[in-house]
Design brief:
By secondary structure, the chain is an alpha/beta fold. The protein is 37% helix and 21% strand.
């Protein structure tokens, strides 16, 4: 074999298709695709490739050039106009359901003052490590790596932070080491304050899912949240109606303590898609408190709508 053929054969198991080899006399030029690799992994792979190339007879000089393709990673915000509507539970189950569709999904818990994702994803007490000045998301049983302020402070510690501290913390979470993910679900804090504005201005989401209960009071605030995202140019993917009906576990009778159909009617009135209903179910509450994410039909249907919207964006 000539030197190029020897190099191709030698580098194949090391580079796994990442290396393109050129040989000009005694000099080898190798283009190495390092897309998705950390700085440490890039340096190690480049050194191994160069060392291996120098063992080929006839090769006296080796040049390794690194190249990478920009990863398209979409941020999907999940927001609400007010607290207490189950936004975090919807966020968690949406992320897990998107994973089930084959997407590589991460979760950022941007609810700085009320971080609940460590409990919902069953990783309370596990702190993220830092690598090259970036936080490394914590793996979860749901297949959704997580970064949350709740991983950095004790569960009973009050986060008495002013706006700049909160928004700086959010940036550290968003800018973590998210290699290997193509979608990040961001569990937003309720309302329309500093954290939301920083998220939109600095880390503009590809789209937002709004969560509301059917009752009029929640829908009033949901409309305000929708207006904020519309004003800032963030597409509204659609509206989810949470806590929509309760089935008595004893008699099977269905009741509607928060009303029914309000979110769907509001979606029609505002000209945005209605993504689906999630019932007020004991099983969902128990699973959430236990850190077990369930693949329930309601969440899978919502995830299918969101996945179709993402695909439609190209």
């Amino acid at each position: 074999m000539d030197p190029k053929e020897q190099l191709d054969a030698l580098l194949a198991p090391l580079a796994a298709g990442r290396a393109t080899v050129r040989v000009d006399g005694a000099r080898a030029s190798i283009i190495l695709d390092v897309s998705g690799l950390s700085e440490a992994a890039r340096a190690a792979l480049s050194a191994d490739i160069e060392a291996a190339a120098r063992t080929v007879p006839g090769i006296e000089a080796v040049r390794v050039a690194q190249t990478s393709q920009r990863t398209t990673r979409r941020l999907i915000a999940v927001a609400s106009g007010k607290g207490g509507v189950g936004k975090s539970t919807v966020s968690t189950n949406l992320a897990a359901a998107l994973v089930a569709t084959g997407r590589r999904v991460g979760m950022v818990d941007a609810d700085i003052y009320g971080p609940s994702q460590p409990r919902l994803l069953g990783v309370e007490g596990i702190k993220p490590e830092a690598r090259e000045n970036k936080l490394v998301p914590v793996a979860t049983a749901a297949g959704v790596p997580l970064l949350s302020v709740g991983q950095l402070v004790g569960p009973d510690k009050a986060l008495a932070w002013r706006g700049p501290m909160a928004t700086n913390a959010l940036s550290q979470l968003i800018e973590g080491d998210w290699a290997g993910t193509d979608t990040i679900v961001v569990d937003m804090p309720p309302g329309t304050g500093d954290v939301q504005l920083t998220m939109i201005q600095k880390h503009k989401p590809a789209g937002v899912v709004i969560v509301s209960t059917p009752q009029d009071l929640a829908l009033i605030d949901a409309r305000r949240a929708i207006d904020l995202f519309r004003q800032t140019g963030v597409p509204v993917i659609g509206l989810v109606e949470n806590m929509a009906g309760y089935v008595c576990p004893h008699c099977g009778e269905v009741s509607d303590p928060f009303g029914t159909g309000g979110a769907e009617a509001a979606a029609v009135a505002m000209g945005i898609p209605f993504l689906g209903r999630v019932p007020l179910a004991m099983a969902i509450r128990e699973a959430s408190d236990a850190g077990n994410v369930g693949q329930r039909a309601a969440f899978e249907g919502i995830a299918a709508h969101v996945a179709d919207w993402i695909d439609s964006q190209g």
